[in-house]
Hints:
Radius of gyration: 21 Å
Strand order of the largest sheet: 1-2
Mean pLDDT: 81
CATH class: Mainly Alpha
Number of strands: 2
Shape: globular
Largest sheet: 2 strands, antiparallel
Low-confidence stretches: 1-18, 220-236
CATH topology: Growth Hormone, Chain: A
CATH architecture: Up-down Bundle
Helix content: over 70%
Number of domains: 1
CATH superfamily: MFS general substrate transporter like domains
Structural class: mainly alpha
Distance between the termini: 44 Å
Amino acid sequence: MLLRDKDEGVYNLTDSASKFFYGWWIVIAGAITMALSSGLFFTGFGFFFEPIRQTFGWSRTMLSGAYAVSRIQSAGMGPLIGYLIQKYGPRKIMTTSFIFFGLGFIFLSQTNSVLTFYIFFLILSNGADPPGFLSVMASINNWFNSNRSKAIGFAMLGLGIGGIIFPPILAYGLDNFSWQATSFACGIFIIVVGSGISQLVRFNPEPYGYLPDGAIKMNDTATSESKLGQEIVNTPGPEVELLEAIKSKAFWIISIGHAQALLVIASASLHQIPFMEIELGFSRNTAAQIVMVLTAVNMFGQMFGGFLGDQLPKNVLAAITLIGHSLAMVILSVSDSYLFVIIYAVCQGLSWGVRTPVLTSMRGDYFGRGSFALITGCSQGIAMLGMVLGPLVVGYLADNYSYAVGFNAMAILTAPGTILFLLLKKPVKR
C-alpha cells in the first residue's frame, strides 16, 4: 500500500505488500524522459532542419548557430539547475522543463523570422536539456549505489527507444503535413506525457524507508522533499562538495572528455540527416531508417555499458568509446552508399550508448550523492562547449567546403579525449 502525506506529498513505500523497489519506477520515468528528449530533440530535430531551411532560405551556418546558442545557454543553466534540484527536488524542475520543451515546439510552429526562430528554439532546447536529464540522473544516483551503472543504463535505453519510435513518425508528419503542424503536434504531446511522467520522480530513498538499492531503513520518518537535497544519511562512497570537486583533476578530465564526445554527438545529431538527404540523395524515410538503426544500437549500448560499468574500469570504457566516436565520423565522411552509412550508425550508436551511463555513473562514484546534481550540472555546463562548437563548425565547413571536411574535423578534435580518460584517476578525499 502507498500512503500519501496530504501536506508534503510524501509516500511511505515500506509496506510489506510493496515488492517492487520504487527506485525502478524512477528508472522507468527516466527512460521515458530520455525517449522524449532524444526522439524529438537530439536526434529528431534534424528532420526539421531542411524543411525550415527551404522555407526561409537560411544557411546551414545560421541554423546551426541557433543550436550553438542554445548549448551556451544550457552550459550557463547547468549549475543553476543543479542548485534548484538540490533545493526544491527534481519533480518541480522536471515538470517545468517539459512545459518549456513543449511550448518551444508550439511557438516554433509560428516562427517567421531569424529572431523568433532563435528565441523559440532556445525555449525548446532549455526544456529538453539539462533540467529533465539532470533531474532524473540526480534521483537515480541517490536511489542506487552498487547497481548505479545498471540503473542509469536502463534509464538511458530511452535514448534508443525514442530514436526508434519518433523518426518514422516525424518523417511521416513532415511528408504529409507541414513542418509547422508537425512541430505544434510535438509540443502538445510533450506537455501531456512529460508532465505526467514527472510525478513519479523522488529525490532520495531515505524518507520513504529505504537505503540505496532497496535496503530497508528502519525507524525512519518521512521528510519534506524540499529538504532532501540537504538530508543525506551515511551510505558507502565519497561525499564531495562542489568546490572540492572543482579542485580535482578528475572533474576537469571528465568534463573536457565529455565535451569532446559531445562535439561528435551534437554535430552528427543535427547534420547527419541533411547530409544523407542532400549529399547522398537518400529519401526522408531512408534517413529515418538509418537513425532507427543508430538508436537501436545505442539502446543495446546503454544496457551493455550499464553492466560493463559495474564490472570494469569506467575510465578505460570511456576512452574506448571516444575512439569509436572518432572512427564513426571518419566512416560517415567517406560514405557513398547505404552500407557505409549503416556501418557508421552501428559504430556511432554503440559508442554513444556505452559512454553515456559510464560517464554519468562515474560522477556519482567519484563525488558521491550529496552534491551530485550541482557537481554534474557544473561538469555538464563545461561539456556543453562541445555541443556549442560541433554543429557550428560542421555547418560552416559544409557551407564553404563539404560535410566530409566537417565530419573529419570532429574526428580529429575528439580523438585526444581518449588519452585524457586513460590518465583519469579517482580523486582521494582529503
